[in-house]
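Deliverable D4.2, example record:
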Amino acid sequence: MKRQGKTAGLLVCCLLCISTLFSCNGEVSSGKETSNADAAYAYYAVFEKLYSDDAGLNGGQYLAVDFEESMLENKNIFIALMQRFCAEHNYILLLDTFDGLEEKGYIKDLYFEDGLYISFDDTTLTSEKLVTAAKKWRSALGAIGFTFTVKKRLDGWQITDEADAWIS
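Output generated by the structure prediction step:
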């Protein structure tokens, strides 16, 4: 009988430990804030801003997007938005990292001769806010970047701050 009491006690203890791993909404905490599909529009707002800045970097056949450091979990909506953009602007969409593009021969000697590389390095993503260091890169001497804060408003996602601007 004592053994059953110890087993039951251990079981209760284990259940309590497991329950502490869960947040109040029942999701397991991963250290990264979870995102909803709507957040894809925040990334697209950042992309549009980057694309419109320093238009001399735009061009080529390929538009590469790197989500390696992004917190967006479901990228399907963003990919659909980018596919539409690419179709309208005669680009072929590539989803890859900088290293992957180098390995495949798209980027040679720190130059993306026939394309443009966009990346996102997020610090915050919630259902209401995105903070990301994003860059547009064509070469070691042709790139721009900002830290963007994008907030959800009644009429959609809007960039509310651009900080840490750099250009090469």
